[in-house]
From TrEMBL:
GO CC list: membrane
Protein name as it appears in the record: Fatty acid desaturase-domain-containing protein
Pathway linked to the protein: Lipid metabolism
Cytochrome b5 heme-binding domain residues: 13-89
Keyword flag Translocase: no
Source taxonomy: Eukaryota, Fungi, Fungi incertae sedis, Mucoromycota, Glomeromycotina
Amino acid sequence: MTQSPVKVKSSQPNYLTKQEFEKRVQNGQMLIVYNNKVYKLNKWIKHHPGGELAIINMIGKDATDAINVFHPDYVVNNKINSFYLGEYDPGDLEEDIIQSQTSTNESELLLTLAKEKSISMAYQRLESKVKERGLYDCNYWNYAYEIVRYIILITTAWYLVINGTTTFHYFISSICLGIFWHQLAFTAHDAGHNGITHNLYVDYLIGIFIADFLGGLSIGWWKKNHYIHHIVTNHPEHDPDIQHLPFFAVSTKLFKNLYSTYYKRTLYFDNFARFFVSYQHYLYYLILCFGRFNLYALSINHLSSEKNLMFRNLEISSMILFWCWFSYLLSYLPSLFIIIFYILISHMVTMILHVQITLSHFGMSTADYGPLESFPRKMCRTTMDVDCPWWMDWFHGGLQFQTIHHLFPRVPRHNLRACQPLVKEFCDEVGIKYHIYGFIEGNGVVLSALKSVANQVKILKAVAKENENKYFIIKD
């Protein structure tokens, strides 16, 4: 009797052509390319710590650079292998790109493609330098000094409320509490990026203690919002950090009633928005004074509506405890007027943080250059750094190095200054402009950008009024 031949599993990898890759994506498969390998993330997307949108915005793309800088070694070396589908065969990529563009200048497109590839390769060499110099390692003494500062601020705030006898005491206390929240945000930012212990769960718990319990804000909301911001920086339709209608518009694209993929609703440019945007360069600092109240609302909405949220109950409990201790602190104040005064001052002090956050992006490009643009070029184009002396680093909390942070989001912020010479050298090497301004000059750049958009609203109003007058003249 003849035995059936034994079927031997082929050791040859499965190759997916560009056409097959795109067809599968169109049919609903969540595929990405990483180091010329294809990974299918349909089963993982709901469990992704950075949220579903962070993955969705990379579907159908080469996500190599973004994956490398956002994830620790155990993810890129081990975890991602669970989702391996096959090898990626791009075929004649240059020809496909040329055919997909409206431009007929083929040589220019090929040069652009070659340039972006060289930038990406130089960026990977830069990341290797950052790792070799130990700049991913966290020096915990930096946090020891900061904890001392935090304790002094919160202790002073409590002491002056409990033992204070004059409005001036309560005023100083409210300022100390506001500065306490302002400073805490920097460490919460580190924890959100897993930049303290580099352990997802440990840093998440640190973030909950700092953001939720001490600050009343959801670290889970921040992670979802911020990770999307890092992937689609300054994209009017996708980046929630520049979607602030009806109060601000950093691009005239927001005049078109854009649909926000983050908020899953249309951002209407109605009469209310037209009024505020027309004067946004005058109202900029005033509106930011109330920014923290908006963060409370966003945090509560996130915890009540977000699906598959890690540590939901712990976050809710921590935020309830925040309102308990803050209400208890307010109970020592002698009158309702002083309580309202205290709340407003302590929250308005955190306006500085909102200025520091918006400073990095509000004045920068909001254009979309499509699939040809490399990750590092996009980060440098849409982000600015703030030039300041080292002894002011405590004030800016690492946010003054936003370009560097966007290139290396997991590098501890205390090491960002050491990264700056390497980034400048990289930008010079590949011919990318490194945007850096002084704090006052940077504010000027932002106000100028806001004014430019505001002027466009006034022009549109004038044109509409002129057309209306023509209509009535013809009708008469």
